[in-house]
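Data card: per-record layout.
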Amino acid sequence: MFARISPFFVILLIMLSFSAKATHIVGGEIQFLWTGRGNNYQLNLLMYFDDINAADGLIDNGITVYMFEKGTNNFVKEFPLPLKNQDNFVKYDVPGCEIPDLRTRILEYSKVFSFDPSEFTNPEGYYFEWERCCRNAIITNIQFPDEVGVTFYLEIPPLQKDNTTFRNSSPMFKPIKGEYFCLGKEQSYDFGATDANRDSLVYSLDTPFKGHSSLDFGNVAPTGNPAPYAPVDWEFGYGESNMIPGSPSLFIDPHTGVISVKPTKLGLFVMSVVVKEYRDGKEIGLSRRDFQFKVIQCAINPPPKVVLENPAGGYFSGKDTIVVPFGKEACFTADVSDSSSYMGNEAIGLKKGGTLPASVFSLSPSSVILSPYNPVSKHDICINTCKTIVLERDSLFTLQVIASDNACPTPETDTLKTIFLLKGQKFHEPAIGLVPAKNSYNIKVKDSLSFVVFGTDQDSLDMLSLTMDGNGFDPLDLGMQFTTATQKDSVFGIFRWIPSCTGLAESPLTVNFTVTDESCVPAHPQKVSVNFGVEDIPTKITEIRPTNLFTPNDDEHNDFYYIPDMPDGNCSSYFVGVSIYNRWGSLIFKSKDKGFHWDAASIPDGIYYYSIDLKSEVKKGWLQIVR
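The structure for this 627-residue chain is written out next.
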């Protein structure tokens, strides 16, 4: 015989069973990102999922995000998002810092949708929301955590303003780099965001939303509900200003989004970060991220120590000012140690901070493994102001060298702080000139031209050099010559040129002369240009009058056919060659020699025809041979 079980008891067992399975949500956020193509936007929802305590079957294969108008709270549209990725987990800055009872899986729901801007013009903007139950049952700072859900929430601006498309992507929180704090240890996590539109971002802490979801049947993931969304109920002694008890208490930098706290109590604490997005001084959007941190008892891990050796003995203090002369390199030795290294290997990384420009600074090596056999490492820090920075007056800079170990969950650090005075020097640009002071020349082909180019500099230690180049041509290809040297204080070079027909063909020409000062100040070259016009030389070669009779009878009078005193040509008219033909058109003589002499040997008397090619024209006529 079996005892009768009451319906109420059955319902209670079902609810308790579901309660045990439904507590799995660590936190999450929504993202709305323009894809860069047309009106396509990618809608993402990231859920941080408790991979240790959640029962099987709680990962939703798809969700539906709802959109409402701000101000009116009117429903706009719903957006089904499939589960795209469930293989990523929250990672740590220091590998190997994971602990057995914490593992947060990142569920990524995502899809691209087309948003016609003309349909989203509500001046106050819009918001997306999705609700899901339930949070972890062991959360310390809120009431009935296993019955409290999470509201994922994001605000966006209208997609069209004043009939103009308004493009915007919501801020994207940086990946979370850890899941726990150590009791009594001040630590920081970066909850900052990046913004594709370079909008201004302002961060704050906020009470997480519980919204409308609950363990009630059918209400675990309720259909879209408009704002407002109920906040979680704090346990006694907790609140928005004390979400993680600490001394100092939980704080967020409003400009960077970095949260920090020195916890004073063990437990699991839920919190929310809000980032507001501003453009042209007006708020246009709001993003929320919920997350929970566990506070645990960690092993004691002393921070590293970094000090700067003073060449005169001992170490520099943070109040010392180190002078670096102008144009010189100054190198120092930093000693890095960590008392933890006496118990085993300790990885130390070094990075730069402060106002000292990175261009003048070098650090080597930037990482080291300390051990019982190598408890102190030495690192070269060099400051070089030669060609790395322009300083016309003495300037003070701060240098920070930050040493970080491999402590969990975030590194322990020590910061070396030093003041450097970099000596400056007034900078003078070099000067360039010509002798004679003439920037334009007209010159004939085959004439000779020369002039002097000089450079000077008030900075007597600067090395000066002169160079030559042409506008659209190489001066050397045209026979231009420029001889110069490199020297201090002043320098000069001699330009020489005898133009050829090639120079005439390229005319007009512009040649640039540049003086460059080589020193520890970045060079500021100065230039002077000279223009050339090239003219052809005159010639009378086209005025020749060839004879039309000669008598090759060996009487030493008129025995050859030639052109006496043929003038020199120029670039356009010059002797190319002579050809002589008989009356049937057959070639009987040819020469390319301007001084040709034809004796008509073996050629019978008679009438013949000449052709003299002068490039610009051809002289033609007849000639008679009479013996």
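Known properties of this structure: The longest strand covers residues 75-89. Residues 66 and 78 are 4 Å apart (CA to CA).

See the next section for split statistics.
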